[in-house]
Amino acid sequence: MKIFIAALVIIISGFAMGVLSFDHHRQLVDDVVLVRDGDQKFLQLEFNAPVRLVGQYPKTSGDILQVKLRPVAVGAFDENLSLLEKFVGEEEGKEIHMTQMQYEGNVPGGPFLVMKFEQPVKWKIIETDGLLGMNIIVGEV
Predict the structure, then answer these.
(1) CA-to-CA distance for 27 and 49, rounded, in angstroms?
(2) What's the predicted TM-score (pTM) here?
(3) Where do the domains of the chain lie?
(4) CB of 48 within 8 A of CB of 27?
(5) Which CATH architecture has domain 27-140?
(6) Given this model, what pLDDT does residue 25 score?
(7) pLDDT of 90 above 90
(8) Element (H or E) spanning 15, and its range?
(9) Which segments within the chain are labelled E, that is strand?
(10) Which residues lie closer than 8 Å to 70 by C-beta, 6 or more apart?
(11) How far apart, in whole angstroms, are the C-alpha atoms of residue 52 and residue 132?
(12) What is the spatial distance between Cα 113 and Cα 81, in angstroms, rounded to a whole number?
């Protein structure tokens, strides 16, 4: 019983230290990479905290994709960030007809991931294990 109580105290202490040392200014999106797998191309996103996909509009295709996210962590993640410029690169974005990719953390109802394309494309969004990533498969309509 003493071992169980000691283990519980260690776990609770570790959790409390993690919450207290949390960097409130870190960005939610840690990296975005365009992955080419044969004919298929997808954006691989990595997050600094677990993230749930709340919804997307439209569901499967269009020239603008808006993804509503819900971070499962302490922190606001309210900074806006151009993901195309910082991570993906404009040349790689052109491969999937993407003209803009923005994380919008300080908008009502957000945070959102917004992607704009120069022509209609289709997509499929897949949450990765551990909720620390997301893959957005992009193809031509």
Answers:
(1) 9
(2) 0.77
(3) 27-140
(4) yes
(5) Sandwich (2.60)
(6) 56
(7) no
(8) helix 2-20
(9) 29-37, 40-47, 51-57, 61-71, 81-82, 98-104, 112-127, 133-140
(10) 51, 52, 54
(11) 9
(12) 10
